[in-house]
Amino acid sequence: MGAGGRMNVANADDDKPIAHKRVPVSKPPFELSDLKKAIPPHCFKRSLVRSVAAVLRDFIIIGALYYVADTFIPMLPKPLAYVAWPVYWFFQGAYLMGLWVIGHECGHHGFSEYPWLNDTIGFIVHSLILTPYFGFKYSHRTHHANTNSIEYDEVWIPKRKADKLYSEVLNNPTGAFLVFVFKIVLGFPLYFVFNLYGRKYEKGITSHFYPYSPIFNDSERFQIFLTDLGVFATCYGIYRAAAVMGIPWVINIYGMPILFMSGFFILLTYLHHTHPSIPHYDSTEWDWLRGALATVDRNFGFLNHAFHDVTRTHTVHHLFPTIPHYHTFEAREAVKPILGEYYKYDDTPILEAVWRETKDCIFIEPDEVNGQKKGIYWFYK
Predict the structure, then answer these.
(1) CA gap 351, 181 in Å, rounded
(2) How far is CA 343 from CA 220, 298, 306, in A?
(3) Is the confidence at residue 3, as pLDDT, over 90?
(4) Which DSSP letter does residue 21 get?
(5) How far is 273 from 158, CA to CA, in rounded Å?
(6) Is 192:136 a contact under the CB 8 Å cutoff?
(7) Confidence of residue 291 (pLDDT cuts 50, 70, 90)
(8) Which of 194, 253, 275, 281 is least enclosed by beta carbons within 10 angstroms?
(9) CA gap 100, 302 in Å, rounded
(10) How far apart are alpha carbons 320 and 271 in whole angstroms?
(11) Membrane-spanning regions, if any (predicted)?
(12) pTM for the model
């Protein structure tokens, strides 16, 4: 099943490492209903108690990390403080990413049985971490409906060979490193503000903050206004904190953790949707089930805890997005025997994986079959 991410054994068919072995692209011998029947019914039930407990867990850990950093790091000698602050930024950013995951789950209505409560909790937690809740909810809905369609997917749209900037200028180790740094540092804000890495629309300003963006329909535009107000309120709070506590305090306590969180967001979403073994489809070949299956589960080690384990269960999330995070691992184990080779798991260490994908997955092109190019696209460099 391609589970041995670090194995160097070559595949007899294509002389590629097992981690790169392509998933099947033929019509699966199972239907979505077969997968649903295999999952225990309780996995589809949303527990308000467990969901609230997950939010409280994140806020308690985030609060504890803040208290320790604000109270004790300023007391340390400067050499130790220079080490302690990055450690705080890393772990605070990781658990802020966990809070982001809860907001994402609210957008899928996997938090509770009450849509109004899901949207309220999601709006609050995403606004606190500078994420446009409703804007992302609606673009993400389109992503789930069109996963790995090169025409209609909403995020991580691969480049084509005709894009010379990627296929020629950046197609080297130095270029790959610059792309990696750019993605990690600026990918989060540029995606939400300018729809970088997103679908290209022919008309209109494409932004998760712009109510009249072509991403949204008319019934959703007022909620985008609310999204803007929520993020603006947080920005105003940051401004007031800087006026009282000083800019360096705000940068250390909030700004750098948010930067780390945004880096984790890019790592998660990029690695779940970018891999040498998974295909993309044009409209001549795409169908929903094969598109949803063309995702990758990853192992983030000890960070799985901070991220509510969504790292290892992304495939089943695309198949059944309303399953809450505390049931997705059980659901994944239930469907794996049915998925067989259609399931992709890669446990390559994360920094190694993101570097490999950055330098190996430069652009997509279709294979040629009997002299003709089919509508199934693979990554090349």
Answers:
(1) 12
(2) 35, 12, 24
(3) no
(4) P
(5) 10
(6) yes
(7) very high
(8) 194
(9) 18
(10) 20
(11) 47-68, 80-102, 114-134, 175-194, 222-239, 251-271
(12) 0.93
